[in-house]
Amino acid sequence: MKALRTVTGAVVIAALLLTIALAIYALGKSRPQDLPWTDLDLGQPVGLFTGRKLAGLTEDFPACRASLDKAGVRYTALPPRREDEQCGYADAVRLTAGGSRRIGFAPRDLGVACPVAAALAVWEWEAVQPAARRHFGQRVTEIEHFGSYNCRRTYNREGASWSEHATADAVDISAFRLEDGTRITIVGDWAEKGSKAHFLRDVRNDACGVFATVLSPDYNDAHRDHLHLDQASRGEMGWRVCR
Q1: Do 62 and 169 share a domain, yes or no?
Q2: Residue 153: is it exposed, middle or buried by C-beta count within 10 angstroms (0-12/13-18/19+)?
Q3: What residues contact 55, with CB distance under 8 A and at least 6 apart?
Q4: Phi and psi angles of residue 184, each rounded to the nearest 5 degrees, phi first
Q5: What is the distance between the alpha carbons of residues 229 and 207, in angstroms, rounded to a whole number?
Q6: Are 18 and 64 contained in the same domain?
Q7: Which DSSP string corresponds to 105-134?
Q8: Which residues contact 147 (CB under 8 A, 6 or more apart)?
Q9: What does the pLDDT look like over 10-29, one tens digit per residue?
Q10: Which pTM value belongs to this model?
Q11: Which domain holds residue 54?
Q12: Mind listing the pLDDT tens digit for each residue in 98-124?
């Protein structure tokens, strides 16, 4: 019994020291998102706990909107929608270009659950634009998509689980357009060699730090023409897919 108490005490002390060391590192490097107890700030670099904090917004629409407001993201809150027990949303917003988030979406009527909007903002700032500058020396001005809300089951298969699209907690990204008009598409450039393919893989990989699920052509043929990005609430508990 005494040995067990000794081991337990040692574990507690080690955990405490690790927590203190992590806090000193994060604060010293100005990386508050590396700490689990700091508030989410969409303007901060992606940290160890950014993804979990974003997923946590699925249960707190006011906090999500406050995060968008603080970061200067322009949006319009959409009225709640309910088709049946499985389909609908109560926390959707429509993103608009301008403010701190200057990028546009095509089609322009992109309405998504607020946590997806927050993750898209971070993804643009911390992944998409840096990758575009790195590979092409210019910024992305527009992101093309296949939409978000769709009352359906996964892969439209009868009896399958309900898709995250059924609650607007997912968005399918199909292409990017650069300042000079160059268009980079998932279906046309993913399998090619060169800067376009490298750019697409970079933005896919970095999306994994802010979305609960990221699926690309590497996952299966159903995703050959888009990146599926979702912010399922189960991601808050650590269930993540990045492929």
Answers
A1: yes
A2: middle
A3: 115, 212, 231, 232, 233, 235, 236
A4: -115, 115
A5: 8
A6: no
A7: EESS--EEEHHHHHHHHHHIIIIIHHHHHH
A8: 107, 110, 165, 171, 172
A9: 444 544 444 454 445 445 55
A10: 0.85
A11: 40-242
A12: 766 668 899 987 899 999 999 999 999
Q: Where are the alpha helices (DSSP H) in the chain?
A: 2-28, 50-56, 61-71, 114-123, 129-136, 186-189, 195-207
DSSP 40: P
| Tokens standing for residue 168 | 């607007």
Q: What are the residues whose beta carbons fall under 8 Å from the beta carbon of 71, sequence distance 6 or more? A: 41, 42, 43, 100, 101, 121
In a domain, 35, yes or no: no
Give the dihedral of Cα atoms 50, 56, 60, 65; nearest 10 deg: 20
- Number of independent structural domains in the chain: 2
- Identify which of 199, 74, 213 has the alpha carbon closest to the alpha carbon of residue 139: 199
